[in-house]
């Protein structure tokens, strides 16, 4: 079985307060985009078969295979349901440390694929609960629809947002931002000028002044080139531009097809349709 785990972007990301459990209360609207990895799971047979054999290709990172979220997802499902040995092949296209949720998406799709492949009949709610153990934004990828995300990111509610006809341009600089370190540097703020839901219900032209990603200030201070990229997206006609997650990827939403100018050509640039 093959599937294509997709990325997400954050429209607004408000970090409200630090919780007693060490996590942070946040609010953000998550939007799925057509920017994907490729994930294959097959039954693995043979006398040397391990429970979960994993191969990662493409944009790989230096990690122990057992630490990969796909393996952890397999182990989590196996702790609830009897599973045969499997071989997982993952072709990474979504960059790591970019705020695009690639690892979380891979894990969620692993759970969905195991559920379908072996007729486990796991409910969406149970799969979301499993995902919440793997990452704060992992649950989002079970239903994979535009959602308001609260709590530490795992509390999800459907959110109506009309992005029809809009074009998304993603810019990925050649650097990674550690989510853990980004949270260490941020100062939570629960006092807001208004509610994110209300701001996003207004015309997109008003978002620049009202829809903010709280990570931008500290991340831009350490990586000023990211601030320059955001401004360049506006220079090229973006209706709204922002960093996604804790970075380092940035995006611009445009009214029409846009040809990227030389000012952005030194970075990885992708045109990514929104997933409906």
Brief write-up:
The chain is globular and about 60 Å long. It contains nine helices and twelve strands.
Describe this structure in words.
The protein is of the alpha+beta class and 276 residues long. It folds into two domains: 2-158, Ribosomal Protein S5, domain 2; 167-271, Alpha-Beta Plaits, CATH 3.30.70.890. Helix content is 27%, strand content 27%. The protein has helices at residues 69-78, 102-117, 124-132, 140-143, 179-185, 196-200, 207-210, 216-222, 224-235, and strands spanning 2-3, 6-18, 24-36, 38-43, 52-58, 86-92, 147-150, 155-158, 167-172, 240-243, 250-254, 268-271. It has a four-stranded mixed beta sheet, covered by helices on one side. A four-stranded antiparallel beta sheet has the order 2-3-7-8. Helix 2 (102-117) packs across helix 3 (124-132) and helix 8 crosses helix 9. The model has no long low-confidence stretch (mean pLDDT 93).
């Amino acid at each position: 079985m093959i599937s294509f785990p997709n990325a997400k972007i954050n429209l607004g990301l408000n970090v409200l307060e630090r919780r007693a459990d060490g996590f942070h209360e946040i609010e953000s609207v998550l939007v799925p985009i057509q920017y994907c990895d490729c994930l294959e799971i097959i039954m693995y047979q043979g006398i040397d078969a391990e429970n979960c054999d994993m191969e990662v290709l493409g944009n790989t990172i230096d990690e122990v295979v057992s630490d990969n979220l796909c393996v952890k997802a397999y182990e989590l499902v196996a702790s609830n349901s009897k599973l045969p040995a499997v071989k997982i092949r993952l072709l990474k296209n979504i960059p790591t440390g970019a705020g695009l949720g690639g690892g979380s998406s891979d894990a969620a799709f692993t759970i969905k694929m195991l559920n379908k492949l072996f007729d486990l009949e796991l409910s969406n709610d149970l799969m979301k609960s499993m995902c919440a153990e793997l990452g704060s934004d992992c649950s989002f990828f079970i239903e994979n629809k535009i959602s308001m995300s609260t709590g530490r990111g795992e509390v999800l509610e459907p959110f109506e947002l009309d992005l029809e006809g809009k074009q998304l341009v993603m810019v990925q600089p050649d650097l990674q931002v550690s989510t853990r370190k980004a949270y260490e540097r941020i100062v939570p703020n629960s006092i807001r000028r208004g509610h994110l839901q209300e701001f996003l219900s207004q015309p997109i032209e008003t978002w620049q002044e009202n829809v903010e990603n709280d990570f931008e200030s500290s991340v831009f201070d350490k990586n000023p080139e990211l601030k320059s990229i955001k401004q360049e997206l506006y220079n090229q006609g973006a209706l709204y531009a922002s960093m996604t997650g804790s970075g380092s990827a940035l995006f611009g939403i445009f009214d029409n097809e846009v040809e990227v100018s030389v000012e952005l050509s030194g970075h990885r640039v992708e045109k990514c349709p929104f997933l409906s």
